[in-house]
Amino acid sequence: MNPLLKVAQPLTLPSGAVIRNRFLKSAMSEAMADRSNSPNRLHVELYRKWAEGGTGIVVTGNVMVDRGALGEPGNVVVEDRRDMDGLKRWAQAGTRGGAHLWMQINHPGKQSPRTMSKQPVAPSAVPIGGSYGRAFNTPRELTNAEVKGIVKRFAETARIAQEAGFTGVQIHGAHGYLVNQFLSPADNRRNDEYGGSAENRMRFLIEIYDEMRRVLGAGFPIGLKLNSADFKEGGFTEQDSEEVVKAMAERGIDLIEISGGNYENPKMSAEDDGEVFFLKYAERMASIVHVPIAVTGGFRSKLGMEEALAAGKTSMIGIARPLALIPDIPNQIMEGRYETVTTQRLTTGFPSLDRQFGAMIGLSYYEQQMRRIAQGKAVKLHRNAWDPLLHMVRRQGIAALSPRRSN
Ligand SMILES: Cc1cc2nc3c(=O)[nH]c(=O)nc-3n(C[C@H](O)[C@H](O)[C@H](O)COP(=O)(O)O)c2cc1C
């Protein structure tokens, strides 16, 4: 191992936890749970590989707080202690060798596909627009009491994660899910204390954080994944995002992971321009607040990662898709065996089909590779979209082809 590399330096978080290096495996929904939405031996095997691969913080795919509100088939749900044994096995495997394992905690709000929710809930009854909007039913507005109930659910899921041996949690505040919906003025038109001013739109997130902190204690890491903006007309702006970063830093959050509008949004994909899209924003945040920042979306090369850390643009390097192809990138980099990887755009060979199923093609390919890693099989490196699409239909039926994310 080369101790001079920036990526190899440990990092101490505000809560006191020491992270062994600067690699953060960003959340990827594994879609591996069965109908009971419980973690199983596939999760155990996959996370063992990631922990043994050298990553400092391994963040799980989003875990849902409510069985009645799923983002997609195969989500893990943690709303009570029924899966404690399975969660313990998962936590033990995912922390091997000193890796941190953080559970990403989420509620989809209106971004729960019509195949899963007849009537999803949201801050306001604003339907999802855009080309994938038809895949989601119009939501109903949450009552004030229901909002407070969901705050409690986030904290309860976090408490169970802590008891099971997870070493941290991450609130999913990005990618158009419920926390993001509250933050965005385009989605949140409420008149109560959770809507209106930037301060009110932030209240749901702050109450979740405060309640988690209360039940988890001062020494347990809590992170947040946040969009730099959601790139929607009248939506969540960089200015809004900056206010959230400042408020959360003041409250003592351990790590803020900056991400984009949506991972199928070209704005966040590195294939197009070969650079990490959110680095400029993160660099500005790093200069105004003292909170560790991770940037995710587009990191591929060792050089790019080293340069971003050396220039002080970010404290951690978030990586998702490449780690579903090569689970030990951190070790390979630290041992001088890795330079870069290309994440190719997959194609069916028919542009109109690619457009129609674009969002699903990317997801299904990486889900397929995660499952293969969990099963001890080699990943399939190819650009043919048919193989992963058929894999998904075989596993989840034809409904798997309808979009699960909104843009
Ligand atoms: C299959 C798949 C599932 C994902 N699931 C999640 C998720 O559950 N939570 C989340 O915050 N981001 C999720 N993401 C987004 C990634 O965490 C990341 O932000 C995005 O892929 C960009 O990083 P990359 O260029 O390193 O892949 C997912 C991405 C993929 C490809």
What does this structure look like?
This is NADH:flavin oxidoreductase/NADH oxidase family protein. InterPro entries: Aldolase_TIM, NADH_flavin_oxidoreductase, OxRdtase_FMN_N. By secondary structure, the protein is of the alpha/beta class. The chain has one domain: Aldolase class I (TIM Barrel, Alpha-Beta Barrel). The protein is built from 13 helices and 14 strands. α1 packs across α12. It is globular and about 55 Å long. It starts with 10 loop residues before the first strand and ends in an 11-residue tail after the last helix. It binds flavin mononucleotide (FMN). The site of flavin mononucleotide has 26 residues, from α12.
What is the name of the CATH class? Alpha Beta
Provide mean pLDDT, rounded: 92
CATH architecture: Alpha-Beta Barrel
Bound molecules: flavin mononucleotide
> Can you give the helix content as a percent range?
25-40%
**Series of H and E elements:** EEEHEEEHEEEHEHHEHEHHEHEHHHH
The tally of domains stands at: 1
Classification by helices and strands:
alpha/beta
* Largest sheet entry: 8 strands, parallel, barrel
Number of strands: 14
Strand order, largest beta sheet:
3-4-7-10-11-12-13-14
